[in-house]
Amino acid sequence: MRLAGKVALVTGAGRGMGRRYALGLAKEGAVVAVNDLKADKAAETAKEIEAHGGKALALGADVSKKEDTERMVAEVMKGLGRVDILINNAGINPFILPAEKVTEEGWDRVINVNLKGVFLCSQAVFPVMKEQGGGRIINISSQAGLFGEQGLLPYSVSKAGVLSLTRVLAYEWSRYGIYVNAVAPGFIAGGMNEPILGKTELVSALAERVPLKRFADPEEVVSVVLFLCCEEAKYINGATIVVDGGMTGYPPKPILDLLGRR
Ligand code: NAP
Questions:
Q1: What is the percent of the chain where pLDDT is above 90?
Q2: In a domain, 77, yes or no
């Protein structure tokens, strides 16, 4: 119960990793505001938290829309009275394409959710955290944001942008007690990778790029995110914690080649 008395807001928590972060935060004693684009999916996670004896509030909001993010934070304040932790998790990776085939619409869609969404949600909680005298913001980036993944141009750019945004916010908001950090996971056996987990050849080829030769168990990423929310992590600020089994130490094998799309 390392987070008893805290209120956490998790974006994109109707399923995938966001749902797991929300459940993990609740297990540590936090009251959790569960956001998702689909309000009914957010409500499912909130119900699951409550079934385990926790307290949760479900919120439907599109993180890429300013008015939605402001309404979302206002609803958390009305329902729960404070926001101590924000996990900027909502993210999409809707296509794998060579750079020359990425459309303007595809670019905007990915950047708006993955990068602008992190900016808008952080800005929306800022006055609350400033008034409270502090808070923790954890931004979910990706190993793709560190070295750039072929076939994932807007996704890689958005996740690299999240790292830069993390450092700037940490610099600017530390004076208010707001610590901002990023987590850059590699391949997780869950969330947006669920559709490929049954494709054993592809999974093996991707895992071959990882020195540990396997995808991360989702809980191996959850534990790092929870740590960053806790007292023990209070000298970590503006940092990127890489949770990729050592993959960033290796030159990447192009996904486009692995998929035979070159
Ligand atoms: P996921 O299973 O696809 O879940 C993404 C969640 O975000 C969904 O609940 C989705 O809602 C929600 N979402 C999408 N657009 C939104 C919006 N505009 N506003 C609010 N919520 C929105 O993906 P995941 O694997 O859990 O990914 C979570 C985060 O981890 C992402 O930022 C991703 O880039 C990052 N990440 C994942 C991996 C991995 O291997 N899985 C690795 C590195 C980084 P809907 O249900 O309505 O679509």
A1: 93
A2: yes
CATH number (domain holding residue 105) = 3.40.50.720
Residue 175 CA, ligand 1 centroid: distance in Å: 31
pLDDT class of 262 with cuts at 50, 70, 90 = low
The pTM of this model reads 0.97
Q: To test ligand 1's pocket by mutation, which of 19, 92, 141, 220 has the most ligand atoms within 8 angstroms of CB?
A: 92
- The first and second tokens of residue 244, run together, are 């990729």
Which sequence positions are flagged as catalytic?
Answer: 155
Taking Cα atoms as reference points, which of 227, 117, 228, 225 lies closest to residue 179? 228
Q: How many domains does the chain have?
A: 1
For residue 2, tell me if it sits in a domain: no
What pLDDT is stored for residue 252 in this prediction?
64
> From the centroid of its chain, how far is CA 144?
13
Residue 184 lies in domain: 7-258
Task: Give the residue-averaged pLDDT of 224-246.
Answer: 97
Report the alpha-carbon distance of residue 132 to residue 72 in Å, rounded. 18
Residue 1 lies in a domain: no
